[in-house]
Amino acid sequence: MMICHVAVAQTKEPVAAPADPKPPVFGINFSGFVNTDMFYDSRQTVMARDGDWLFYPDMVKPDANGKDINAKGTFDILSILTRLTGNITGPDILKAKTCGYIEGEFYGNAPASINSFRLRHAYVKLNWTHTELLIGQYWHPLFATGCFPETISLNTGAPFLAFGRSPQIRVTQHFANLKMSLAAVTQLDATSTGPDGASTKYLRQSVLPEMNFQVQYDLKNEGNKTEFLVGASIDFLMLTPLLNTTVVKKAAYDTVINNIPKHTDAVVASYQTNATIKSLTSNFFVKMQFPSVTIKAGALYGGNCYGLNLIGGYAVKSVTDPATGAVDYTNIHTAAVWAEFKTNGKKWVPGIMGGFSKNLGASTDFTGPIYSRGANIDYLYRVAPRLSLTIKKLKFSTEFDYTVAAYGTTLKNGTVSNSKETGNFRVLFATNYYF
């Protein structure tokens, strides 16, 4: 992953300025890669973009004879991850070094727009001596850019860690090896869900953006090729699922008068509502890099994690006022852990990633509908070894992904009982040519 930066040249002895100094050159430098993914799945999966994004295997779906309809494999070849990036340099502003960054690919913003160009990142940075201000679309703060699984698959370890890009304003303060950041975040690519399906409106209607606070300690020795990174963050999210409720005052009915049928519509009334669902999510991550190998790990716990591309969400807890149909909500909680081991070679690079996620349900029973991902899943786990070969600008990679979802019966508190494991085996081969 590339981010905009300002290079500073260093010399051992002072160098006199030229007699006729030229003004600095500002502009944009393009880079990126051409990508093609070829993959086989042993069964139908819960996925996006024709399967290039893999969540987990789909549930068993028996036909009239008891045979599993979803036990049919798939194969595809896609080049939609081909990417173009632009690093932008500019003059100092407000005594700060400035830069910009734009990145896009041909993934599309919806299944119908696959193969069309979509925005991934677009931000500007202002860097003072110890303070950085980022404004624009970038990785969600719960996705630690210094510590994430380097899988070949597009999902980058999801749904076992928070994943997504979000419009945001983020301020980072540096203290030697320690840094702290505070971010105000909205949604676009990865959204929460609710009564009208996945949408940005539930957060927009709440007026208050998602808020995140993170702290990191990073001890790096570039000469020895070692690094120790540890960090944690906490995230607050508030959604307003409904602006109004609807109550049936008088049911619809049919009558027959003089042998002529007559239909009378129901009488309904709408009432304003401001009920919200508030949730907290926290994560922890650690990275240990040695000259030959790197070990990474992370853990997450939170409520309403749907918008982070994890399982979980929320549910209608109860009807608080039958006369107006007002309701309250409760979070479906999720816990997830992941770990990765990889070598640091320049040509041949093997690695392996593993993850586990658990549906912890709600803190109380609920009576209403569930707005969640994987509401009938008890737990997930994945094991994904990989190997890549880099020859100059060309990289060949292969990954073997075995992901298991334990489907069962959803109980009144959102937990799942009598679960049975369903597994999918994916073979992925990818080619990347960098420029």
Give structural attributes.
single chain; 435 residues; mainly beta; Porin; 16-stranded antiparallel barrel; two-stranded antiparallel sheet; 25 strands; 58% strand
Q: What would you note in describing this structure?
A:
By secondary structure, the chain is mostly beta strands. It has a single domain (28-241, 276-434), classed as Porin, CATH 2.40.160.10. Helix content is 1%, strand content 58%. The protein is built from one helix and 25 strands. The strands form four sheets. The protein has a 16-stranded antiparallel barrel with strand order 1-5-6-7-8-9-10-11-12-17-18-20-21-23-24-25. Strands 2-3 form a two-stranded antiparallel sheet. Strands 13-16 form a two-stranded antiparallel ribbon. A hairpin with a 7-residue loop joins strand 5 and strand 6 (97-105).
Classify the oligomer.
single chain
Q: What is the overall shape?
A: globular
**CATH superfamily grouping:** Porin
Going across the major beta sheet, what is the strand order? 1-5-6-7-8-9-10-11-12-17-18-20-21-23-24-25
| CATH fold-level topology | Porin
Radius of gyration, CA atoms, in whole angstroms: 25 Å
Helix content: under 10%
| Terminus-to-terminus distance | 14 Å
> Which stretches are poorly predicted, pLDDT < 50 over at least 5 residues?
5-17
Question: How do the helices and strands line up, and which of them pair or pack?
Answer:
Blueprint: E1 27-41, E2 45-48, E3 53-57, E4 74-78, E5 83-89, E6 97-105, E7 118-127, E8 131-139, E9 165-175, E10 178-185, H1 201-204, E11 210-221, E12 226-239, E13 244-250, E14 253-257, E15 260-264, E16 267-272, E17 277-289, E18 293-303, E19 312-321, E20 326-343, E21 348-361, E22 370-373, E23 377-391, E24 394-410, E25 416-434
Antiparallel strand pairs: 1-4, 1-5, 1-25, 2-3, 5-6, 6-7, 7-8, 8-9, 9-10, 10-11, 11-12, 12-17, 13-16, 14-15, 17-18, 18-20, 19-20, 19-22, 20-21, 21-23, 23-24, 24-25
